[in-house]
TrEMBL record, chain A:
Pfam families: Beta-prop_KIB1-4, F-box. Residues 10-43 form the F-box domain. Gene3D superfamilies: 1.20.1280.50. Residues 378-388 have a biased composition (Acidic residues). It comes from the Eukaryota. This is DUF295 domain-containing protein. InterPro entries: F-box-like_dom_sf, F-box_dom, KIB1-4_b-propeller. PANTHER family: F-BOX/KELCH-REPEAT PROTEIN-RELATED (PTHR33110), OS06G0148600 PROTEIN (PTHR33110:SF36). Residues 369-388 are annotated as: Disordered. Residues 63-357 form the KIB1-4 beta-propeller domain.
From TrEMBL, chain B:
This is SKP1-like protein. It comes from the Eukaryota. Pfam families: Skp1, Skp1_POZ. Involved in ubiquitination and subsequent proteasomal degradation of target proteins. Together with CUL1, RBX1 and a F-box protein, it forms a SCF E3 ubiquitin ligase complex. The functional specificity of this complex depends on the type of F-box protein. In the SCF complex, it serves as an adapter that links the F-box protein to CUL1. Part of a SCF (SKP1-cullin-F-box) protein ligase complex. InterPro entries: SKP1, SKP1-like, SKP1-like_dim_sf, SKP1/BTB/POZ_sf, Skp1_comp_dimer, Skp1_comp_POZ. It comes from Digitaria exilis. GO terms for biological process: jasmonic acid mediated signaling pathway; protein ubiquitination; ubiquitin-dependent protein catabolic process. The keyword Oxidoreductase does not apply. Pathway: Protein modification; protein ubiquitination. Belongs to the SKP1 family. Keywords: Ubl conjugation pathway.
Length: 404, 186
C-alpha cells in the first residue's frame, strides 16, 4: 500500500490497545525500545513495569491484571529446581539434585553461578540442624560490577527456625558467619550507602563486609551492634468482637532513596482455646521508621507517615520504587503472605495481601477480586480443614519480582 | 447504495420472516452491507450480542459508523470462519490454572487470517475488534502486533509501522543513553 487511506496512524493506537500489546511483550528491553519509538508511545508506556508476584512454582502474576506468566524452561525439565525468590529480574534457584545455587535472568537467560547450598551455609557434618529445613533471603548485591564473576552477594539464611547465617559469596566462594544464638535471629538485611545492615527483633547491626577484591575470595564478615534498643512492643493479645487474637510484628529492612527504613507489619492471628491459627493471620497495619545513621554509635529512629512519593514492595526481597514511574500509588506499601513460618501461603499466597496507604491507614485489595479482611470482619470459615497446625517451616515463599 | 427499500407491506412481511433468520446484516461507515452468522456474532462480540438481545438489530443493515468496509469485511469473515471452525481444546478450556500460558495462543487458521492482512488493515481490524468488544479477535490481533515488535529496534519498529520519529536529536540522544541496555542488549 503506497498511501494511507485515512489519517490515523499506529502512533495514535488507542492507549488501551497499546496496553494489550504490551502485556504480550514481557521483556523490559522490548518495552524500553517501544518507549523510544515516538512521543505518544512514550507517554503511554511507563518506564518501569509494575512488579509481578512471584509464586512458588516459577509462575508470575501481573498486578492488577492478574495475568499469569509461566517460564517452565527455567525450572528445568523435571521441575528439579526450587525458586527461593528473586533479585530484580534475576531468579534465585536451587537445583534439588546437586543443591547447586544460581541466579538466572528471566529475560536474557544469563546465569550467575553461586557456590552450592552447603558451601554458602558453611555447613559441616556435625551440624545439629542437618535435616532441618532452611530459609533463604535472596542474595543482596553488594557491588555493582559489570562482570558477573566479580559480583559479591550477601545471603541471609535461617536454619532450623532460629539460627541465622549471613554468607558473603561470589560465584566461586562463600564465607559464612553464624550469628550468635543470643541475638535470637536476623529478620532481614539491607544494603544502604555501601554498608550492610542486619535487624534482629531488638537490635540493629552493621555487618562489616570486606569487598576489596583479592585472592582467597570473600572474608568472613563480622557484625557490630549499633542499636540495642530497637522498639519492639512484642506480642500482645486482644479481643475483638468476642474473638481472641495474638498480635505480633513482622519486620522488613528496606532501602529507600538512600535511607534505611524499618518497616513493621502488625499482624493479628486468630486464636481459639490458646491455640494460634497461623494460616488465619491478617495484616492490620504498617509502621515505618527511618534510621538516622549519621551518628554510628547512636542510631535514632523517626516514625514517618510518607515515603516521599515512593511505593514499597515488601517481601523476601523488598524494594522501594518511585510510584509515578511504575504506576503504583505513592506512599503505599504493597504486601502479600510472605512470612517465613506460616504455611498459609502454601494454600494461597494471596490469602493476606493488599495495599496499605500510609496517608490514611486504609488497606485496599492488591488484585481485583481478592478480599481484604481485617480481624474485625466476619470470619466464618470455621469449617476449614483442621489439619495439624504444628510449627512449620517452608523453604520457599512468594515474593515480588521486578521486571526491569 | 445497494439496499434502500421503501417501507410497505412487503417490507413488513419480510421483517417477520427475518426475525427467524440465522444471520444479521451489518452496515459499514461507507454504506456497504455484510451478512454474518447471528450465533457467531453473539458469541464473539459483546457489543453485537447486546444489540441482538436488545432487539436493536436493523434488518436493513445495522449501522456501524465507526467501522470502514474493509475492516468490517474482515470482522465478518473472521466471525464466519470461526463459526465454521471446530474449536480446539485450547479454546474451550477457559479456566485459568497457574500452569497455562498468559494468553491463549492463536489457532493456526487465525494466524493465517491475520498474517495476510496489510498493516493498515491490521490497524483497522484491531480498532474494530476493540469497538465491538471482540475479546478473542483482540487476542489474535494484539498477538500479531506484538510479534511484529518483538526484538526490534525503535528504528525498525518505526519503519514497520510507518511511524514518524517526532523526537528531536537531543531527545533521542537522551533516550539512547537512558536505555542503552535495551538498545544493545540482543
Amino acid at each position: 500500500m503506497t498511501a494511507r487511506r485515512h489519517c490515523s496512524s499506529w502512533a495514535d493506537l488507542h492507549p488501551e490497545l497499546l496496553g494489550l500489546v504490551l502485556q504480550r511483550l514481557p521483556s523490559p528491553a522490548d518495552r524500553a525500545r517501544l518507549r523510544a519509538v515516538c512521543k505518544a508511545w512514550r507517554r503511554e508506556i511507563l518506564p518501569v513495569p509494575f512488579p509481578w508476584l512471584c509464586l512458588l512454582d516459577g509462575t508470575f502474576l501481573t498486578v492488577p491484571e492478574g495475568d499469569v506468566h509461566h517460564f517452565p524452561s527455567l525450572l528445568g525439565d523435571e521441575d528439579d529446581a526450587l525458586c527461593h525468590g528473586s533479585v530484580g529480574s534475576w531468579l534465585f534457584l536451587e537445583r534439588t539434585n546437586d543443591r547447586s545455587m544460581s541466579l538466572v535472568n528471566l529475560f536474557s537467560g544469563d546465569t550467575i553461578t553461586l557456590p552450592d547450598a552447603d558451601t554458602i551455609r558453611h555447613h559441616d557434618n556435625d551440624d545439629d540442624h542437618d535435616a532441618r529445613p532452611m530459609m533463604y533471603k535472596p542474595p543482596v548485591p553488594l557491588s555493582s560490577s559489570s562482570s558477573p564473576d566479580s559480583l559479591l552477594f550477601a545471603v541471609l539464611m535461617t536454619v532450623g527456625g532460629f539460627e541465622s547465617v549471613i554468607s558473603i559469596c561470589n560465584s566461586a566462594a562463600a564465607a559464612a558467619f553464624r550469628v550468635p544464638r543470643s541475638e535470637v535471629r536476623i529478620c532481614d538485611i539491607a544494603f544502604v550507602g555501601g554498608k550492610l545492615y542486619a535487624l534482629s527483633p531488638k537490635k540493629l547491626f552493621v555487618v562489616d563486609v570486606d569487598s576489596s577484591r583479592r585472592a582467597g575470595g570473600p572474608k568472613v564478615p563480622s557484625m557490630e551492634c549499633i542499636d540495642d534498643d530497637v522498639d519492639n512492643p512484642g506480642d500482645m493479645y486482644k479481643t475483638i468482637g468476642g474473638e481472641s487474637y495474638r498480635c505480633a510484628y513482622w519486620s522488613y529492612l528496606v532501602e529507600s532513596r538512600g535511607k534505611l527504613l524499618h518497616v513493621r507489619r502488625l499482624q493479628y492471628y486468630y486464636m481459639d482455646r490458646s491455640r494460634t491459627y497461623m494460616d488465619r493471620s491478617r495484616t492490620f497495619s504498617f509502621e515505618v521508621f527511618e534510621a538516622d545513621l549519621t551518628v554510628r554509635s547512636c542510631v535514632q529512629w523517626r516514625r514517618v507517615h510518607s515515603l516521599g512519593g515512593q511505593a514499597l514492595f515488601v517481601g523476601p526481597s523488598s524494594k522501594s520504587l518511585l510510584a509515578s514511574e511504575c504506576g503504583a500509588r505513592p506512599d503505599c506499601i504493597y504486601f502479600m503472605a510472605d512470612y517465613d513460618w506460616a504455611r498459609c501461603y502454601r494454600k494461597d499466597p494471596l490469602c493476606d495481601c493488599g495495599v496499605f496507604n500510609m496517608r490514611d491507614g486504609t488497606i485496599t485489595p492488591l488484585l481485583p477480586g481478592t478480599m481484604v479482611m481485617r480481624p474485625n470482619s466476619d470470619d466464618d470459615d470455621d469449617d476449614d480443614e483442621d489439619e495439624d497446625e504444628e510449627f512449620y517451616l517452608e523453604r520457599v515463599r512468594p515474593g515480588w519480582f521486578f521486571p526491569c | 447504495m445497494e439496499v434502500d427499500k421503501g417501507k410497505g407491506e412487503a417490507e413488513e412481511t419480510r421483517k417477520v420472516a427475518e426475525a427467524d433468520r440465522d444471520t444479521v446484516t451489518l452496515k459499514s461507515s461507507d454504506g456497504k452491507l455484510f451478512e454474518v452468522s447471528k450465533e457467531a456474532a453473539a458469541r464473539l462480540s459483546t457489543v453485537l450480542a447486546g444489540m441482538i438481545a436488545g432487539g436493536s438489530i436493523d434488518d436493513n443493515g445495522t449501522d456501524l459508523k465507526q467501522i470502514g468496509s474493509e475492516a468490517l469485511e474482515n470482522v465478518v469473515d473472521y466471525c464466519n470462519k470461526h463459526a465454521n471452525s471446530i474449536p480446539s481444546a485450547a479454546l474451550i478450556s477457559s479456566s485459568i490454572s497457574f500452569n497455562t500460558a498468559p494468553f491463549k495462543e492463536p489457532e493456526e487458521w487465525e494466524r493465517k487470517f491475520v498474517d495476510r492482512l496489510s498493516h493498515d488493515a491490521l490497524f483497522d481490524l484491531v480498532e474494530a475488534a476493540n469497538f465491538l468488544g471482540m475479546e478473542r479477535l483482540l487476542d489474535v490481533t494484539c498477538h500479531k502486533i506484538s510479534e511484529m515488535m518483538k526484538g526490534k529496534s525503535p528504528d525498525q519498529i518505526r519503519e514497520v509501522f510507518n511511524i514518524k520519529n517526532d523526537y528531536t536529536k537531543e531527545e533521542l540522544e537522551e533516550i539512547r543513553q537512558e536505555l542503552a541496555w535495551a538498545f544493545y542488549d540482543d
